[in-house]
Amino acid sequence: MQHIYVTKSGGLDGLTLGETEPRAPDAGEVQVRVQASSLNYHDYLVAAGLLPVDDHRIPMSDGAGEVTAVGEGVTDYAVGDRVMSCFFPNWEDGGATLEGLLGVPGDHVDGFASETVTMAASAFSPMPGHMSFAEAATLPCAGLTAWRALVEETSLQEGEWVLVQGTGGVSIFAMQIARHLGCKVLATSSSEAKLQKLKELGADEVINYREEPEWGRRAAELTGGVSLVVEVGGPGTVTQSVRALRVGGAISMIGVLTGISGDVPLAEFFQRNATMSGITVGSRQHQANMTKAFEDWELRPVLDRSFQLKELTEAFRYQESGQHFGKIGLDLS
């Protein structure tokens, strides 16, 4: 089988195509023929050498494929089952724990930039029945992160406002979920073309943050204050996110695209009686809840474009450019 691995000092240009023999599953494991993966910011950090991992680590946290063999004692899956990965294979249910946050594919262990993988059965869950492999492969990180932010950690009511930032995978999923919950959506971007696409996808209001540096205040004017901000920018955007909130509103802190530390306008934050939750993907039970809802809604991810396994460096360069709208896929079929 072919796979891509990282090298210690190579960065994106050091991503290397290799070959090895698939491993038969041990007790409690399944072997999966990977059909698709998708790119996340976390994967980019690994591939670019910005998040240290073991040399020759196989990257990519997301994967979807078909079970080709099962080990002794596995009863949840059979050969031919269509499955998708779990970002946290050790987090079954309940609140986050240190132990539950270990074992991330493509980081702590080898991931899905590989034509075949052999992992614990708990590293997978059933795919939504109405989705293709390419669609399902966008769910384990971005889809589940948005789901947990809007559903598992927040009690949104019909008609409330949700603010999403940009047009990456989490933000687009958050908008789709919000619309299915009966919420209104305000979306931001610096691209007029993308703002138009956001409107076509269902955004009720849009703001060009480059033209409106005080977009948080503008958001509050347009909405009367939003109930939830899906915060992917981090320190460069959180001040405006606080200013966009209604009294009693919440921020789901998901990403740090603008840096890993910064200032929060604390006086404005507590005056709004606001809350902020750190969201790192979710549990296997969250994933099961999401899968059922997406099947009921017949929700389909927004796919930008797809690359072949050997084009993974090119795919990450495309991600770097910020041109994408929705998810970037990796086709291993």
UniProtKB/TrEMBL annotation:
<dbReference type="InterPro" id="IPR036291">
    <property type="entry name" value="NAD(P)-bd_dom_sf"/>
</dbReference>
<dbReference type="InterPro" id="IPR013154">
    <property type="entry name" value="ADH-like_N"/>
</dbReference>
<dbReference type="InterPro" id="IPR013149">
    <property type="entry name" value="ADH-like_C"/>
</dbReference>
<dbReference type="InterPro" id="IPR020843">
    <property type="entry name" value="ER"/>
</dbReference>
<dbReference type="Pfam" id="PF00107">
    <property type="entry name" value="ADH_zinc_N"/>
</dbReference>
<dbReference type="Pfam" id="PF08240">
    <property type="entry name" value="ADH_N"/>
</dbReference>
<dbReference type="InterPro" id="IPR011032">
    <property type="entry name" value="GroES-like_sf"/>
</dbReference>
<protein>
    <submittedName>
        <fullName>NADPH:quinone reductase</fullName>
    </submittedName>
</protein>
<dbReference type="GO" id="GO:0016491">
    <property type="term" value="F:oxidoreductase activity"/>
</dbReference>
<feature type="domain" description="Enoyl reductase (ER)">
    <location>
        <begin position="10"/>
        <end position="330"/>
    </location>
</feature>
<dbReference type="InterPro" id="IPR052711">
    <property type="entry name" value="Zinc_ADH-like"/>
</dbReference>
